[in-house]
Write a structure and sequence with these properties.
alpha/beta, about 15% strand, 7 strands, Rossmann fold, single chain, 7-stranded mixed beta sheet
Length: about 280
């Protein structure tokens, strides 16, 4: 619990039953878009305050619904690369299954991950087909509901499926667009992982991926010269440009049509369909 704000949950641990917490917006401003938030915490804890709950009012102002994911953690005995990623993909299916009931556009559902949480959002962009095949049995209540995210946010990420010490998976032709942001030299390893993902998507030609690497900025939790620690999420970060990455996300999100009216096909969907329909071409 927060020591400063009564009732505020800063972080959680000991998660054995993964769950989602849904925050809907008023009908009058609802775009139908929904962002599933996967907090970071090094797979030891989930920082659901600064990297989830703070985004509820932020996205509300843009008519975007938010869903806080509580996924299983390595520190509690689970395999992050399997169990936590499955939790993220299942969350996407769950939100899509209840989209009509919650007034969410089933074609505007995506996931944004922070640090360790980005180790869930980045594989979600490429592993959805395999997950759906493995969970298509007659006894599965969500069988037939796609786990493909319509967009992904990859914020100061941990290693993605395209990290240099991993065997990279095949990139589906209908991989979703991604927004990637990280500090640069001050957060070197996370910047490299961000570039690994972006480079893979760029080489494959997947449309509408965008990356922002900032010259000044450290990873959340890193010590600063004055003895304090760098904050994450929406914090101002002492006025440096990295502290405004969320507005660059909104620019990208609006450009791809996710802030339009519910039920209207997004630019992201049109571009993805055109890319899938076009003959495959090698890197240029």
């Amino acid at each position: 619990m927060s020591l400063a704000v009564p009732g505020r949950i800063s972080s959680i641990v000991n998660i054995h039953n993964p769950s989602i917490e849904v925050h809907l917006v008023e009908r009058g401003i609802n775009t139908g878009a929904a962002v599933i938030l996967a907090a970071g915490g090094g797979h030891r804890t989930l920082n659901v305050g600064g990297e989830s709950a703070d985004f509820v009012p932020f996205f509300y102002n843009y008519g975007v619904n938010t869903v806080i994911l509580r996924n299983r953690l390595r520190n509690d005995g689970y395999k992050a690369e399997v169990d936590a990623v499955n939790d993220a993909l299942q969350a996407i299916r769950m939100v899509r299954a209840y989209a009509k009931e919650w007034n969410i556009d089933p074609k505007k559902i995506g996931i944004m991950g922070f640090s360790a949480g980005a180790e869930l959002s980045s594989p979600a962009a490429v592993l959805f087909e395999e997950f759906d095949k493995q969970n298509s049995g007659a006894g599965d209540p969500l069988a037939g509901v796609s786990s493909r995210p319509d967009f992904v946010g990859i914020i100061y990420p941990g290693p993605t499926p395209f990290a240099r010490n991993r065997t990279a998976p095949a990139i589906p032709r209908n991989a979703p667009p991604g927004f990637i942001a990280s500090g640069g030299p001050g957060d070197r390893m996370h910047a490299i992982w961000a570039m690994d993902y972006y480079s893979a998507m760029l080489t494959a030609g997947v449309p509408n991926n965008e990356i922002h690497l900032y010259g000044n900025g450290r990873h959340p939790g890193d010590a600063l010269p004055d003895g304090s620690r760098m904050s994450g999420g929406l914090t101002d970060r002492n006025g440096i440009p990295l502290g405004t990455w969320q507005y660059r996300f909104i620019d990208w999100f609006r450009d791809l049509g996710f802030l339009g009216k519910p039920g209207v096909e997004t630019k992201a969907a049109k571009d993805s369909a055109a890319f899938v329909a076009a003959p495959a071409r090698g890197p240029r």
